[in-house]
Amino acid sequence: MYSEKVLDHFQHPRNMGELEHASGVGTVGNAKCGDIMRIFLDVDDDGIIRDVKFKTFGCGAAVATSSMATEMIKGKTVQEALQVTNKAVMEALDGLPAVKVHCSVLAEEAIQAALWDYAEKHNIKIEGLKKPENTEE
Ligand code: FES
């Protein structure tokens, strides 16, 4: 049912934890299952994501997609991070079962919420970034 990559990222999640002095933090909730994902970004003055961590209270697919998504945006610019869609994360994981697609949407939304928070705090406009919905405090 799950690919090797999904199992690997679930069993050995990359970038799990939190950043004390994050430049941006995004927390989103999944209305369907109640699961919550939080992403912390450390962005430098050139707009490059130097570090990223996640905390996910959710299913295995949510943990695996958080792990893969953080790997995909680390070292990228904020603009590039915006291009990391749930589809791209799923492809990088060699797919997810259809009933688990919504879990990967949470990862995309959490990244965008963290980018939004970063942009707000630093008075920056990230082209193409929309105000996130489903955010949780
Ligand atoms: Fe809730 Fe996967 S079932 S995020």
UniProtKB/TrEMBL annotation:
Lineage: Bacteria, Bacillati, Bacillota, Clostridia, Christensenellales
GO molecular function: iron ion binding; iron-sulfur cluster binding
Segments traversing the membrane: none
Source organism (scientific name): Christensenella hongkongensis
Entry protein name: Iron-sulfur cluster assembly scaffold protein IscU/NifU-like
InterPro entries: NIF_FeS_clus_asmbl_NifU-like, NIF_FeS_clus_asmbl_NifU_N
Domain of life: Bacteria
CDD domains: IscU_like
Domain NIF system FeS cluster assembly NifU N-terminal: 1-123
Any one of the GO BP annotations: iron-sulfur cluster assembly
